[in-house]
Every structure is written in C-alpha cells, then in structure tokens.
Design goal:
This protein is of the alpha/beta class and about 725 residues long. The chain is about 40% helix and about 15% strand. It is elongated and about 130 Å long. This is Hexokinase-2.
Length: about 725
Amino acid sequence: MLKQNTPLFLPKLFDHIAECLANFLEKLGIKNQKLPLGFTFSFPCQQTKLDESILVSWTKGFKSHGVEGRDVVSLLRKAIKKRGDFDIDIVAVINDTVGTMMTCGYDDHHCEIGLIVGTGTNACYMEEMRHLELVEGDEGRMCVNMEWGAFGDDGALDDLRTDFDREIDAGSLNPGKQLFEKMISGMYMGELVRLILVKMAKEDLAFKGHTTPDLLTTGHFQTSFVSAIENDKFARRLHKMVRRLVPDCDVRFLRSEDGSGKGAAMVTAVAYRLATQHAERQRVLDALRLSREQLLEVKRRMGEEINRGLAKESHDQATVKMLPTYVRSTPDGTEHGDFLALDLGGTNFRVLLVRVRGGKRRSVEMHNKIYAIPQEAMQGTGEELFDHIVHCIADFLEYMGMKGASLPLGFTFSFPCHQNKLDQGILLKWTKGFKATGCEGEDVVSLLKDAIHRREEFDLDVVAVVNDTVGTMMTCGYEDPLCEVGLIVGTGTNACYMEEMQNVELVEGDEGRMCVNMEWGAFGDHGELDDFSTEFDRAVDDCANNPGKQRYEKMISGMYLGEIVRNILLEFTAKGLLFRGKLSERLKTRGIFETKFLSQIESDRLALRQVRSILQHLGLTSSTCDDSILVKEVCSVVARRAAQLCGAGLAAVVDKIRQNRNLSELKITVGVDGTLYKLHPHFSSIMHETVRDLAPQCEVTFLQSEDGSGKGAALITAVACRIRDAGQR
C-alpha cells in the first residue's frame, strides 16, 4: 500500500473534481467567495480528524491509481491550488452514510443510525466514546462509519454464500473483498438474479429451457428490473426482519433526501458552527491559562512584595504584610501537660483539649468538639461573637468534665493580625465573610478575656495567639524538623515561613529566626495581578463582602473558585455556547456552584452522568453530554490556574529562604492543610509541579498536616510554657 507521504503525481480524478467545482461556482457567480465545503467521499477511509481522510481501498468499481493510502482532502486541496482560480475551505470529509444519518437527524433527533443500500451498502451509528479505543477520550459519543460491506471477507459468511455469490465475486474487480456488499447491494443484485435465471433455464426449470443472448450477457439484467418486478418490497421486508430480530428496540425508518449532498452540507455547517463556538470558548478560557513566563512574573512580583512587607520603611504600603508571629522555637520533645486550643478560622469553631506527653514516649492526644458560628454572630457585634465563643468553651469544659478548670490556652485566630508579642493579636481586618463590628484594630485576646469575665464561670491563661498557617507548620515540624513553611489552601489561603531575624525589621534583634505570617491573600490588592485577572475575577470581586481586597485569595481559594466557574458558565450560556443558551434561575444565584463541585466534577472516577446530576441540581435538567464535557473543562481550567498561582507564590517563598542562607540547593519541607489541597483530585499535583518548575534549586517535600490549627496551637502554647517556666527558675 502506498504511504501518505510518498511523492506521487496528482491523480487525474481530483483534477476532474476541481474542474467540476470551478464550473459550478462559475455558474452560480460565487467563484470569488471562500466558502466552507463538505466533501462526501463514499469509500472506506481512515479518519484522524474531520478534515482528513486516508483512502483505505477503492470499492464500487473505482480503480484510480495513486489514491489509496493518501489523504483525499489533501489531494483535492492540491488540485484546487494548482488551478489557482478559486479557493475553498474544506471543513469536513464524510461518508455518504454519515450524511444520510445527519440529514435525517435534522428532521428526527432520535436518528442515530445511517444506512445506505444502493450501488453499494454501508451503515454508521453513534457509538460511546469509551468503546472507541482508536480515539483518545472517554466522554460523549462519536459517529462510527462501519464499512460493513467488507463483513465476511474473513470467511464469516462462507456457510451462507452460494455458488452464485462466488461466481459474482470471482468476476468482480476486487475478488475476495466486500463480500457482504456483493450479497446485498444494487451493483450486484441484478447480476446475481441473472446467474440464477441462466442456471434455471439451463436446467429446464425456467423459460422452457430457452435463453437469449441478452440473458447470457454479463450485466444485462439490471437491478432496476428486480425493483420493478418486486414492486419495492425490499424496504418492507427489511423493516419486518429488523423488528423480528430486535423485538426490544422500537426502530423507525426515515427515508433520506439527498443524504450525500445535503448531509455533507449539514455536517459542514455543524462543524463550522462547532469550530466557531469552540474557538470562542477557547478565546474566553485562554485568558485563564497562564504561560510559564506569566507564572515566573507572578513569582517575581510576590518576591518584591515579600521584601516590601519585611522592610520597616515600606511595610505600611505593602500588600503582603509579613507579620511577625513571635514564634521562634519548634518543639524539642520535653513539652508536657494539658492545653486548651481554640480554632476560629471559618464558619465552624472548635474547642480542643490537647494532652502533650514528652520524653521517649512523646505523644499528642486530642479531644475536640465542633460548633457552628451563626451568620448573625459573624456579622453582628464583636461582643456577640466572643460571647458565643465563650459559651462554646463552657459547653466543652462541661462536656469533658472539667468545668471551672484553668488551663494554658492557644488561640488559633486565622485572620490578619498585628502581633507585638505572642499573647496579643491586633485584628487588622476581617476576611472570609466575617464582619463583626468593634473588632478591627482591637486585641482579640482582650476581647476573649472580656467575654470570659462577663460569663464569670472560669478563667483561662491565654498564652499564644496563633494563625492556622503557623499552627500547620508547627504540627508538621513536630514530625519533620525540615518543615519551615506552612501553607493553607482551603476556604482561604495563606502561607508562613521561618525568616531570618535580621530581615524582620518590625522586630528588634538580629539573632536567629522568627516565623512570619505572610497574609499573602492580599497580594494583588495594589494591582500586582491586574494583568492576570479576568472579567470573571472582577465579577467575583465586585460582588464580594470585601471588593478590592484579598485579590490573590480570590483567584486561588475554595471560597471563590466555584463562583468563578459559575460566572464563566453564565457567560457561555448567554453567548449560546452552553446549555443551548437557556439559563436556569438557580445558576443565576450567587454561591450556588460550590467549590466542592469542582472536586467532584474533576474526579477521574466520575462518569458524565454524575456530572449531569450535579448540573440537574443547579436546575439544568436538559443539559447534554457535550455540556457536561465543557463544564468539566471550565472546572479544570479554573482549578489549574489556582494551583499554578499558588505554586508560583510558594516558589517565591522557598527561593527566598534559599537566598537568605546563601545556598545553591535547598532541601525543605512545606506543611500543608486545607480542603482544596486535600480533596481536589489534581490541585496538589499541579501545585507541586509548578513549584518544581519555578524553583528548580529547591528540593521541596510536602507534608500534609493533621489538624494544624488545633494541635499546632497547643504545641506553640506548650513550647511557650516550657520557655516561660525555664525563665522563672
């Protein structure tokens, strides 16, 4: 067989086709227009895409040399180009069978099979993609051109074939090929009848044993004679046989009107529409796809903001605040005792009792209870919020049988705070939907103590105010001494790391290191991310409780990703690119597309029907398989960008540590917590890959934290108590 790239002359057949096309365009007066063209080529072809079709073998008596094994679209394009008097955009090459299905499918949306029984015979149908091993991807369906005329070429029909069938095959242009077609199609049926009649006449079973020269001449008994004699009974017999063989299928037959012409035009029109829509969708999504150069620029800008936040002179203007935490030591194994920990970082609040055992058999034992923070407490007064917190503490102490106990307490308070010492935290601003009045600018430890005194039931020794990111680092540091970075990617996002004291200009002293709470969610609040931000990011920001704030967080964290996806889906639907242009009222509702849906939809184990069930939950009951595929792509693009942006920020952090220590190579561990990182099927791997790529001189290990905000707060408290007790001796 000739290979596709073998240099050959251009077959005359395609010169002739190009000439016919030129004459047709001339006649219609449209020769100067570049129109999309659909090419019905009704021979067995191998297709790798819609506008490429490699002829496998000629059938139906065609024998044009130099075509088999070559792309017929390319041959036609070359013939047109050689003429040079017109131009055509060949969008689709299809088989006449596919054209038939498409033509009928225009009138009946249940039409998913095409059948040709004419000069030749063939069938096509819509097959599930998961069964098509020759094509990548498992989602949706694709029309398969069966080329069933060759059925039997392997001997599968030998026990059904007669001497007449074998005689026809022997006298054909392609003996041993298309055996099913030779038993069925119009090209051979008349000759088959002629051979039977000749044999019957010779055996005196017909025409009183007489024959005529016409009857003895090959090809003289035409298939049209059979149709005239049979009075078109073929179709009725076919329908009856199909219904008898598949009684469980309700099969309707719809006759096509010019399937090979109209069908080709329809496939072309559909392909043209889909190509245009695909290009528009990709144009929108391309704004969310970040190049390596863009990610390196994000890393560079994050590095600049880190330095601005550390420096006393530029700290106030910096978006990344680089707040000192006064955490300067990690556990050494001698800590012991019972500690309370409070964890306030989102819509839930936890109280924990943590028992730390030191020495050779060191261990950490925890008991905790979760309490909800009502919306009215989140957005009411500070007194109401802290009274609710103290009520939860009292309930927990009673639950643990420790009513009235006074224990050292670590308070994980996961909001931007300014600390002048370990047991003081001045709230700079609320994030994550909190808006309680009278708290910003105040010391949260004092607010907590005031609420405890108002209750007059117990007293607590608040030893440390801890950010959940710092707690995460400390928890992982208990397991791995190389852990010097903490990262949270959940409802919100933040990072902390051990910085050299000489660089922490807000705190006196140059010796040793201190953990710095970056509060990196605010990166971009002065426009640093504007050239990477999209209209969808701006829409989410405009409708948030804190417009213009926490811009980096809004592009990364779990609180916002679902909302970005929802806005993209709204845009696509409004443009008619999704859900047939029909919006559901539920999809118009802010927050309805939860970030957990991204994790579910992107799960490799999730079938499309489950994606559709999520869409049905959103009121999109008539969503199609294609809609599900597109929604999955949108989720993938948004989550990938989030993971890459997070990775670019983290690359800046680890490279900063490496440069601080004048190392050519740095080996470091990052302690990570947060539902997005833990539950999304691809977020962590994309983030790891980005860090490796953007900080190649750093060997970064990621250690997943187990309860950093609770256990970490208790460990920081335990370390602080150890140091305090040692100082009192």
